[in-house]
Every structure is written in structure tokens, then in C-alpha cells.
Design a protein that fits this description.
Strand order of the largest sheet: 2-1-3-4
Order of helices and strands: EHEHEEHHHHHH
Pfam family, one: GST_N_3
InterPro entries: Glutathione-S-Trfase_C_sf (IPR036282), Glutathione_S-Trfase_N (IPR004045), Thioredoxin-like_sf (IPR036249)
Shape: globular
Radius of gyration: 17 Å
Keywords: Transferase
Number of domains: 2
Protein name: Glutathione S-transferase
GO molecular function, one term: transferase activity
Number of helices: 8
């Protein structure tokens, strides 16, 4: 049974799953724009989590990108992550979660630069701290041999941070270099966020 991936063109969570499955041409990608009323209504109707991505394997729904990765790893017999790799992926995912929280607050009209809210400041503090944690690992990765879910996840995160203007990654030259080195990997150009 072919997999169906339901997601948006802008979500970094969706993008990293698209990149993981890029070589599998049997996967159907079903785009949804949840910022529009019709897309939001559709998403709420099919997904109790009310988030993207969502995957279907036949009638089996899968609601979270980390669970999707684990499911695909098992289904396709991919090598499981080591504990060190799990920690890197958790750092990438936590950075992304904090940035998405900030983006959602900003989109909702909240001034995230006011400097007077514990939750907001905690999210903002995580970004440079976790990116610094990830950097030594990122410097060791090479496109020819390390194009995998971790590097796909990091690329998706960094691209999205720049696209949404959530964080200036130029503060981390080694991560800018990472993006430059990995920008020609399979599926990257094809999954870029479409220009408006």
C-alpha cells in the first residue's frame, strides 16, 4: 500500500518527511494550506491533532513527524538511530518547536520582542543555545555520505528559520556553511517553499 503524506508546502516538519521519502515515487503528497479556511476545516476533520504533517498508510493514520520517521524506518528496514543521533534529532526538533511557538504567537498578534513574558523568553533563549549544541555535529556532516533524516531535519529547520525571519542564522557561520554544502542534495530544490 502506498503512503500518502498530507502537509503544507511551508512546514519544516512536512519538508523533512518529504525529503526522507523523496526517492520513493509511490508516495502521494497531498498539499493543504491550513491558513485558508477550507484547508483548516479539512485538517480539523481528518486529524484530531489539528497539525501537519499527517500520513496515511492505507487506513492507518500517523500523526507526528517523529512517529512517521520511526514508522518509515521500520517499514523500509532503515538503520535505527543511535542514542547520540537521537539526541541530535531531539535538539533539532526542540529548536523547531520553540521557533514554531514563537511564529504562532507572532502570527496571532503578540509582540514576541517585548521582553516581558517568561514563556516567550524561554523559547527565544533555546534557539541559540540548541543551535550551538548542534553545530559541532553539523560541521562533521558531508552531503555525499550523510544525507539522512538528521541532516534533512537540520536543513529544513535552518531554511524555515530564515524564510519566516524567526532567527538570524548568520550568527552561526558553520550552520550557514552547512546549508550551502547541502543545498544541492536530492529533493532540496524541489521542496523549497514556493515563492509567492
Amino acid at each position: 500500500m502506498a503512503l500518502t503524506l498530507i502537509g503544507s508546502f511551508t512546514s519544516p516538519y512536512v519538508r523533512k518527511i518529504r525529503l526522507l521519502l523523496w526517492e520513493d515515487k509511490s508516495v502521494e503528497f497531498r498539499p493543504v494550506n491550513y491558513f485558508e479556511e477550507e484547508g483548516n476545516k479539512y485538517l480539523k476533520a481528518i486529524n484530531p491533532f489539528n497539525q501537519l504533517p499527517m500520513m496515511l498508510d492505507g487506513d492507518q493514520p500517523i500523526y507526528d513527524s517523529r512517529v512517521m520517521f520511526n514508522y518509515i524506518t521500520k517499514k523500509k528496514g532503515l538503520k535505527p538511530l543511535t542514542i547520540e543521533e537521537e539526541n541530535i534529532l531531539s535538539a533539532i526538533d526542540t529548536t523547531l518547536a520553540s521557533a514554531v511557538n514563537l511564529f504562532s504567537l507572532r502570527k496571532g498578534g503578540i509582540d514576541i520582542d517585548a521582553g516581558n513574558h517568561y514563556f516567550i523568553e524561554r523559547q527565544k533563549e533555546r534557539l541559540p543555545s540548541l543551535l550551538n549544541l548542534i553545530t559541532p555535529w553539523a560541521k562533521t556532516q558531508e552531503p555525499a555520505k550523510d544525507w539522512n533524516f538528521l541532516t534533512m531535519s537540520l536543513y529544513s529547520l535552518l531554511y524555515w528559520l530564515e524564510f519566516r525571519e524567526m532567527y538570524d542564522i548568520k550568527k552561526h557561520p558553520d550552520l550557514v556553511n552547512f546549508m550551502e554544502r547541502f543545498k544541492n542534495c536530492p529533493g532540496v530544490a524541489e521542496t523549497d517553499i514556493p515563492k509567492a
